UniProtKB/TrEMBL annotation:
Alphabetical keyword list: Membrane, Transmembrane, Transmembrane helix
PANTHER family in alphabetical order: BIOFILM ARCHITECTURE MAINTENANCE PROTEIN MBAA (PTHR44757:SF2), DIGUANYLATE CYCLASE DGCP (PTHR44757)
SMART domains cross-referenced by the UniProt entry: EAL, GGDEF, PAS
Protein name per the record: EAL domain-containing protein
Organism: Streptomyces polychromogenes
Disordered: region residues: 930-958
Polar residues composition-biased segments: 948-958
Entry superkingdom: Bacteria
EAL domain ranges (all copies): 658-922
Positions of the PAS domain: 356-426
SUPFAM superfamilies registered for this protein in UniProt: EAL domain-like (SSF141868), Nucleotide cyclase (SSF55073), PYP-like sensor domain (PAS domain) (SSF55785)
Transmembrane stretches, start-end: 21-43, 49-71, 83-103, 115-136, 143-167, 187-208, 220-240, 290-314, 320-337
């Protein structure tokens, strides 16, 4: 047998135990041996012999009674009556010997017959018999009770026949011949051997039916009873009955029996918390112990004893005693009846065993699992036929093979450890265990096998099944749970775990580890233009490029959508600047790789990559490190895209500031902290107020008055991603408030006699927002009673992705209701020409950037003049935003601009100051009244709209 095979089923060594009762056994042997030596030498004097023969035996019996009584108070309730009866039996023996000693030692008289000692000695056997009956296992069937009675009679009758033939017949003959003999004396002389025979019968019968609990204590008690009965038998025999004297060697047997009774309860071992069955001897088959066959041989041994008694009685004049004939016949009859019962029982058991054997053979041979039995040596002794289908090897081929030779070498150590642990565990605590390992098949490949292991005669029973497909499926599910299904890169969960491992493992002190967050700029346009299938192909190609670009030990992952990440493990460098330069080069190389053209669906597609980089600073957590990289990535996108940004602490501070301001803005919207101001729009020809532009202001709790550019920027970039993803809900709520308040106040001014239109700025996205109830602008005009022409919607520069057809339909519907449309930012937006061509625009509002440089820059002067010429040619009025200087007023008026708005005339006014300005009606125009250089504009103060050719009818002012 190989070393692994021997180790597989070898139990670990068990230490301790076996020495605790050695001292008590030696002391018992020394005391009993000393008493025997003293009795053999006559104790030196007759007086000492009498004392030791009477009171010595009484003291030993009293010690046994006390020991059994004390033990009875500590044992289980079911065993307590047995030890109480044993205590009473020993007490009666002590009493009998004490009475005997009283007459012989104290009174110096011969023991009278009968006496109290005879009564005490006669009570010894019945109480012991009752204790044994309580101790024995009770039969569960009627046949069992019958067999118990027959076995008792077989043993008792045989012993009685043998004893009668040897000795008892001599006691009974005087009474049978009619001689003058005392009947009580004869009955008493027969009572001693008969009770001893009954006690011996019970000892023999119940020895094979005793309970398994406290086996050592019970064995000691039975041995004590057997020794006592043997001494009683020798005492009643004709050889010793006439020559016995107190203190003889026979008393040594009774003395030893009493001390053995006293020692028996304390020889019981306390329950071992971890019972360890002794390992069988290697190389020898398990055999049934000889003691297991004694119960079956007991009736025949009893019949043999009875036959010996009959044969002993035959030479006595050739005439058998009637008592011997009667008892012999009854023993034979009991043996025949018992044999018949056993024969019927054996036939039933044989049939049941055959049926169960066929049943279990069918189960084993028909099972899809492989059942194997391994001997204590580790060799397979049995393998079920299912091995051919599971392992690809015939069962006969596996029988005789060492189990260790079939297990994968990498799994063998773990299997050996588990088997040794299992064999060392008590069966009650762990009856079975489960082991999973790789098993060698007939084709040479390794199969994943799961085995349920049970103990079997020192070896093992293994119920094994092939779980290779399950293991493969589990590995596939694990891979799917940790990888992106489209690109097969690690997903966010696996990437986060690897970042955590990099920060907490052996690299915990390496602060040169970096995380890269990557976003593909322009990916959404790919999805919108050439389809999502092409977008998926682009992501797959980008993932392949990213995986090929990172180093072998680094991790590339897809976090979702068009966002990727890379974990760049540190090299232990302490030079932060050098490491930043190195990682920046890696990130820039990734950016260049991902920004190269993609060949998708036969066409070339270009996207850019924005990358944020963050380093593992001391004490940073995985979530903070990934957040920092995300912030840096959004900073790269905000700075123009297609670039690499390193994380700086002020990025987080800016996010915190924006978050705090956004929270305050949210509170301000609900608490009504916003105020509505209006800035006059002045006719550049005569200074008349042609309209008022509604502007919102927010006065915070600290008294700070935020301008529209400040808080609208916060509103549009709050509650988004780390870099400030727009929050449409907050901006939409603010836009709705501005529109409703502006219309309501304009309606109140109209009732007060100030028919000045109000200008409200609104983005095209907000105007087409599906979350806003349809017809909200129309509903506002009707609810507040604002007349036609009282509202001018200033359309902000729109996203090119806004559908022009839908926007055109929406603006046309509003235009029919008298709502005027102004195009904001004219001269800066790339969609201005399309807007002029398709949208119903009434006014053109020059971009502030043109107005600011119209005086200093000749180039801007020419551009602005050209744009104003286009507006006048189309019959549209024009408004210059941000007119703050008198020189700008003069230049714009000379170029044909009809209206202006800015600090050159007035800043934003509250309602009280606005009405005072409207009552005044005009603002002084720097440079006086000048005739416009270009025709087409209205010379009045009202914003009269002209469209188309001169034949078109102009819309009268409100």
């Amino acid at each position: 047998m190989s070393a692994p095979g021997a180790a597989l089923l070898t139990r670990p060594p068990v230490t301790g135990g076996g020495r605790r009762g050695l001292g008590g056994q030696l002391l018992l042997a020394v005391v009993c041996g000393g008493y025997a030596v003293g009795a053999a030498l006559g104790w030196g004097s007759k007086e000492v012999a009498l004392i030791m023969g009477d009171f010595g035996l009484s003291s030993a019996g009293l010690l046994a009674a006390l020991s059994c009584y004390h033990y009875a108070r500590t044992v289980d309730r079911r065993e307590r009556p047995t030890w109480l009866m044993f205590a009473f039996s020993s007490l009666m023996g002590a009493l009998g010997n004490g009475v005997w000693g009283w007459y012989e030692v104290i009174l110096h008289q011969k023991l009278p017959f009968p006496s109290l000692a005879d009564f005490a000695f006669l009570c010894f056997a019945p109480s012991a018999i009752v204790g044994l009956l309580v101790l024995a296992k009770r039969p569960v069937t009627r046949a069992g009770w019958v067999c118990l009675a027959l076995d008792s009679w077989l043993i008792a009758g045989s012993l009685l026949t043998f004893a009668w033939s040897l000795a008892l017949a001599g006691h009974a003959r005087p009474a049978q011949s009619g001689a003058e003999v005392s009947v009580p004396r004869t009955a008493l002389s027969l009572a001693y051997p008969l009770l001893d025979i009954a006690l011996v019968s019970m000892v023999l019968v119940l020895h094979f039916r005793r309970s398994a609990a406290n086996r050592s204590a019970i064995n000691g008690a039975i041995a004590a009873l057997a020794l006592t009965v043997l001494c009683d038998a020798l005492f009643t025999s004709p050889l010793l009955s006439t020559t016995y004297r107190s203190g003889d060697i026979l008393d040594a047997g009774w003395f030893a029996g009493s001390l053995l009774f006293a020692y028996a309860p304390w020889s019981a071992r306390r329950p071992d918390p971890v019972p360890r069955p002794a390992p069988p001897r290697a190389g020898r088959p398990h055999s049934r112990p000889i003691t297991g066959s004694l119960p079956a041989l007991a009736p025949y041994l009893a019949a043999a004893v009875c036959t010996i008694g009959l044969l002993y009685n035959v030479p006595d004049g050739g005439k058998l005693n009637r008592v011997v004939i009667f008892m012999g016949c009854s023993v034979v009859l009991a043996l025949v009846v018992r044999q018949g019962i056993m024969l019927l029982d054996n036939i039933a058991l044989t049939q049941e065993l055959a049926q169960k054997e066929n049943h279990f053979r069918s189960l084993v041979q028909g099972s899809s699992d492989v059942i194997m039995i391994a001997a204590p040596t580790g060799t397979l002794r049995y393998v079920s036929p299912a091995a051919a289908g599971v392992y690809g090897r015939e069962a006969e081929e596996l029988v005789g093979t060492e189990l260790a030779a079939l297990i994968h070498p990498e799994d063998l150590g773990r299997v050996v450890h588990e088997v040794r642990r299992f064999l060392a565990t008590p069966p009650a605590e762990e009856p079975t265990t489960r082991i999973e390992c790789r098993f060698k098949s007939g084709g040479g490949e390794w199969l994943n096998v799961e085995s349920t292991v049970n103990r079997h005669q020192g070896g093992l029973i293994l119920n094994s099944r092939d779980v290779t497909e399950r293991v493969r499926l589990q590995a596939q599910l694990q891979h799917s749970a940790e990888h992106d299904p489209l690109t097969d890169l690690p997903n966010r969960a696996l990437f986060t775990r690897r970042v955590r491992q990099a920060l907490t493992g052996r690299r915990a002190g390496d602060h040169s580890t970096a995380v890269l967050f990557i976003d593909l700029d322009g990916f959404k346009a790919v999805n919108d233009t050439i389809g999502h299938q092409a977008g998926d192909e682009l992501l797959i190609e980008a993932a392949r490029r990213l995986q090929d670009a990172v180093r072998a030990g680094d991790t590339a992952a897809r976090l979702g959508g068009d966002e990727f990440a890379a974990l760049i493990l540190g090299d232990g460098s302490r030079d932060r600047s050098a490491r930043e330069y190195q990682v920046h080069e890696i990130a820039d190389r990734l950016r260049a790789t991902l920004s190269q053209p993609y060949r998708i669906a036969g066409s070339e597609v270009r996207v850019a990559a924005s990358i944020g980089v963050a380093f593992a600073d001391p004490g940073i957590t995985p979530s903070d490190l990934m957040r920092n990289a995300d912030l840096a990535m959004y900073r790269a996108k905000a700075a123009g895209k297609d670039r690499v940004e390193l994380y700086a602490p002020q990025m987080q501070a800016e996010v915190v500031r924006k978050a705090e301001l956004a929270g305050k803005l949210r509170t301000a919207l609900h608490e009504g902290e916003f105020a509505l101001l209006h800035q006059p729009v002045v006719c550049l020809a005569d200074g008349e107020v042609a309209a008022v532009a509604a502007q919102a202001r927010w006065r915070s709790a600290q008294g700070i008055l935020f301008t529209p550019a400040e808080f609208l920027r916060v509103a549009e970039h709050s509650e988004g991603g780390p870099g400030g993803v727009p929050d449409p809900s907050r901006a939409a709520e603010l836009s709705r408030w501005l529109l409703e308040e502006a219309v309501a106040e304009a309606a109140e001014r109209h009732l007060a006699g100030h028919d000045v239109p109000v200008v409200v700025r609104m983005t095209a996205q907000r105007l087409l927002d599906r979350s806003v109830p349809g017809g909200s602008v129309e509903a506002l005009l009707g609810r507040h009673g604002l007349p036609s022409g009282g509202l001018v919607l200033e359309l902000a520069a729109s996203d090119p992705r806004v559908p022009f057809d839908e926007l055109e339909r929406r603006l046309t519907a509003l235009h029919r209701l008298g709502v005027r449309i102004a195009l904001d930012g004219f001269g800066s937006g790339y969609a201005a020409i399309s807007a002029l061509r398709r949208l119903p625009v009434d006014l053109l509002k020059l971009d502030r950037g043109l107005v600011e440089g119209v005086v200093e820059s000749a180039r801007l002067h020419k551009i602005t003049a050209g744009l104003l010429r286009i507006a006048n040619d189309l019959g549209m009025q024009s408004v210059a935003d941000g007119v703050d200087l008198p020189e700008q007023v003069a230049a714009l008026r000379a170029m044909g601009c009809t209206h202006g708005q800015g600090m050159a005339f007035s800043g934003p006014l509250d309602e009280y100051r606005l009405r005072r300005a409207l009552v005044r009606g005009t603002f002084p125009v720097p440079g006086g009244t000048v005739q416009p250089a270009l025709a087409g504009g209205s010379s009045g103060g009202s914003m009269v709209i002209r469209r188309g050719s001169n034949n078109e009818t102009p819309v009268p002012p409100a």
